[in-house]
Design a protein that fits this description.
α4 packs across α5 and α6 crosses α13. This protein has two domains: 154 residues, 3-Layer(aba) Sandwich (Rossmann fold), CATH 3.40.50; 158 residues, 3-Layer(aba) Sandwich (Rossmann fold). With 329 residues, it is of the alpha/beta class. The strands form two sheets. It has a five-stranded parallel sheet with strand order 7-6-5-8-9. The protein is globular and about 55 Å long. The protein is built from 13 helices and nine strands.
């Protein structure tokens, strides 16, 4: 038993070392083993937060947000504050990053002051360019392409409820947006079967689908795209939806409303899922638009568990990227 425990600790130490100093711009920056390792640490952090109270003492995190936020901002701040670090918030909602000063110049300043850069932006290229220039880790806290931190928290929530997700049946209905992209990629990393149900012309990006399917070929999962919401959710273990009009596409709201009407997650649609199925949403939700009150507030909903787990998953991610996971015995 002792040798087995030592092997586990050795494996964890190796994983923590491999992630130290890395960026998270996309879920594809991680291997399946690294995704699993971050989630394993997230469960430990949630169970015994006091073990990590000083793991990132004196570490500074700066957050630049071009978009408004409730969960992302507060969970990142709470996460680093409870492991000994501190957060600096910069509101960029009135002036996009790179407008006043080049991203390269910003990065070269930041890396001299802080240990971690967290970006919530419109253009994904803003994040990848910052990561290119900065010598400290950069985390994507949402871009127009992906929302990896959301996906990590979501699959942590599913692991809490169901255990191993190998062969799990995950269904997403609605807009094939940034959240959908990260969910699909993470499902593939964990070996979960993922079905995406969207209206025609609103499917996830073809290159992201190709990436997810390439990962799925390795992990033994399936990535399926359909246009029928009932077909998407039938027999599913989890049904996930998001707003039909993401930030930056508000001008399309009137056009999208009738297109997505049949994709609303209501009690009728939920009934096609497995009896034990859970309902998921990244929030904020447009109540009685993409989801009804009866489902959002119902017994199958785990949306507030997801929201809580943003803090724990992000704490684990920061511990990994900043070397704090290696210091905890």
């Amino acid at each position: 038993m002792a040798s087995k425990a030592f092997a586990v600790l050795e494996q964890e130490a190796g994983l923590a070392a491999s992630l130290t100093g890395r960026d998270l711009c996309s879920i594809t920056d991680l291997t399946p083993a690294e995704v699993a390792g971050i989630l394993e640490l997230a469960h430990k952090v949630k169970a015994k937060p006091s073990d990590y109270r000083h793991a990132l003492d004196a570490k500074q995190m700066v957050m630049f947000f071009e978009k408004s936020s409730l969960r992302t901002r507060l969970t990142f701040e709470a996460a680093i504050n409870t492991v000994g670090g501190s957060a600096i918030f910069v509101d960029q909602t009135q002036s996009p990053l790179g407008e006043r000063e080049s991203l390269g110049d910003i990065a070269r300043n930041l890396e001299r002051w802080v240990s971690l850069i967290v970006l919530r932006t419109y253009a994904h290229e803003t994040i990848t360019e910052m990561a290119q220039y900065a010598s400290v880790p950069v985390i994507n806290a949402l871009s127009d392409l992906e929302h990896p931190c959301q996906a990590l928290a979501d699959f942590m929530t599913l692991e809490e409820r169901f255990g191993s997700l190998k062969g799990f049946r995950f269904a997403y209905v609605g807009d094939g947006n940034n959240v959908c992209h990260s969910l699909m990629l993470t499902a593939a990393q964990l070996g979960a079967h993922c079905t995406i149900g969207t209206p025609k012309n609103y499917a996830p990006k073809a290159d992201i689908v190709a990436q997810a399917r390439a990962i799925a070929n390795i992990t033994g999962s399936d990535i399926t795209l359909v246009n029928d919401p009932v077909a998407a959710v039938t027999g599913a273990d989890a049904i996930y939806t998001d707003v039909c009009t993401s930030m930056g596409f508000e001008h399309e709201a009137t056009k999208r409303a009738p297109i997505f009407k049949s994709y609303q997650v209501n009690e009728t649609l939920m009934a096609y899922a497995a009896p034990h199925a859970v309902f998921m949403h990244c929030l904020p939700a447009h109540r009685n638009a993409e989801v009804t009150d009866a489902v959002l507030d119902g017994p199958q909903s785990v949306v507030f568990d997801q929201a809580e787990n943003r803090m724990h998953a992000q704490k684990a991610l920061m511990l990994m990227l900043l070397g704090g996971a290696k210091q905890v015995k």
